[in-house]
């Protein structure tokens, strides 16, 4: 049985969290995802100044999707009304926030906390902005430190797997984060078969089952270096087995997003049921052991 758990001070009925994205840009969806069984839902990233005029699209691939989307286009004041209503109903919702500068993010976090949000995720690692993402430990530290100085509510800092993750994760921890979320989408490209050009015109965010082994490896390596903050896993969850794989490498919860672009509520209900079901404690569902690894290679 997938145990109830605590994440960022919220009591979750189960460790399956719906990650931030287009599907969580509407209050109606957020509420229905919760009644469908999500342990918690992360809102679409709220931004005081979302980029305008970008070509924001999704391309489906056999192993996931590439998207060029950025932040919610709803105004901050509209979001504050939504957050107030969700907080009034004591719903386990995590407000995802980002801004152009650490000071603006701190101000936004203070507004979300004043609206009643009990948990936040700093969505600072989107690579789809015009200039891409040049993330550094210093940048992570600055956003985290400013937010910590502004709010007492627990927050997670969302990071992308890949080069330098170790230093960025420790920077978040040192600057006062309560948890980290790993991973945001990863840089990827697809060639158009007819034109030979890159589809969407460049490198954008890759998500779905193709990134799960990479994220799993990142979490495992991070734990081995002595990283002790809670980690929310995010990347390619499609089944209860995937959730347990992440719990097995030390995540406190697993987010699911891309899988929900197909039959959103049915898919979520299945993943929650599989996470709780008897099969979830079977072979390979626990911590990754040497035996487990070699067994899986053979099967
Ligand atoms: C269309 C789309 C929109 C997304 N929007 C956001 C966002 O606004 N904020 C954020 O932190 N992550 C965003 N993500 C990233 C997801 O929350 C998630 O971290 C990532 O896709 C990996 O998980 P998955 O493989 O289960 O999708 C988005 C992903 C997709 C595919």
From TrEMBL:
One of its GO terms (biological process) is 'de novo' UMP biosynthetic process. Pfam families: DHO_dh. GO terms for molecular function: dihydroorotate dehydrogenase activity. InterPro entries: Aldolase_TIM, DHO_dehydrogenase, Dihydroorotate_DH_1_2, Dihydroorotate_DH_cat, Dihydroorotate_DH_CS. PANTHER family: DIHYDROOROTATE DEHYDROGENASE (FUMARATE), DIHYDROOROTATE DEHYDROGENASE (QUINONE), MITOCHONDRIAL-RELATED. Residues 278-299 are annotated as: Disordered. Residues 4-273 form the Dihydroorotate dehydrogenase catalytic domain. This is Dihydroorotate dehydrogenase. Its cofactor is FMN. Transmembrane segments: none annotated. Coiled coil: none annotated. Pathway: Pyrimidine metabolism; UMP biosynthesis via de novo pathway. SUPFAM superfamilies: FMN-linked oxidoreductases. One of its GO terms (cellular component) is cytoplasm. Keywords: Flavoprotein, FMN, Oxidoreductase, Pyrimidine biosynthesis.
């Amino acid at each position: 049985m997938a145990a109830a758990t605590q994440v960022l001070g919220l009591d979750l009925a189960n460790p399956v969290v719906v990650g931030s994205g287009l599907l969580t840009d509407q209050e109606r969806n957020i509420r229905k995802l919760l009644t469908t069984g999500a342990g918690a839902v992360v809102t679409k990233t709220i931004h005081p100044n979302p980029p305008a005029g970008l070509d924001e699209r999704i391309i489906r691939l056999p192993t996931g999707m590439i998207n060029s989307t950025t932040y919610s286009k709803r105004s901050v004041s509209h979001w504050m009304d939504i957050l107030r209503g969700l907080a009034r109903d004591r719903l386990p919702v995590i407000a995802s926030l980002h801004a152009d500068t650490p000071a603006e993010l701190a101000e936004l976090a203070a507004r979300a906390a004043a609206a009643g949000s009990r948990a936040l995720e700093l969505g600072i690692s989107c690579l789809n902005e015009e200039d891409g993402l040049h993330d550094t430990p210093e940048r992570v530290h600055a956003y985290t430190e400013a937010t910590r100085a502004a709010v007492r509510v627990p927050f997670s800092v969302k990071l992308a797997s890949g080069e330098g993750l170790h230093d960025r994760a420790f920077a978040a921890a040192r600057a006062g984060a309560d948890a980290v979320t790993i991973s945001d989408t990863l840089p990827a490209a697809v060639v158009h078969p007819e034109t030979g050009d890159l589809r969407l015109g460049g490198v954008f965010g890759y998500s779905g089952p193709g990134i799960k082994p990479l994220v799993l490896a990142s979490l495992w390596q991070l734990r081995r270096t002595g990283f002790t903050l809670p980690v929310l896993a995010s990347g390619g969850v499609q089944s209860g087995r995937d959730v347990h794989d992440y719990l097995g490498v030390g995540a406190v919860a697993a987010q699911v997003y891309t899988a929900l672009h197909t039959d959103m509520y049915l898919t979520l209900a299945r993943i929650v049921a599989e996470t709780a079901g008897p099969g979830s404690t079977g072979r390979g569902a626990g911590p990754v052991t040497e035996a487990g690894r070699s067994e899986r290679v053979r099967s």
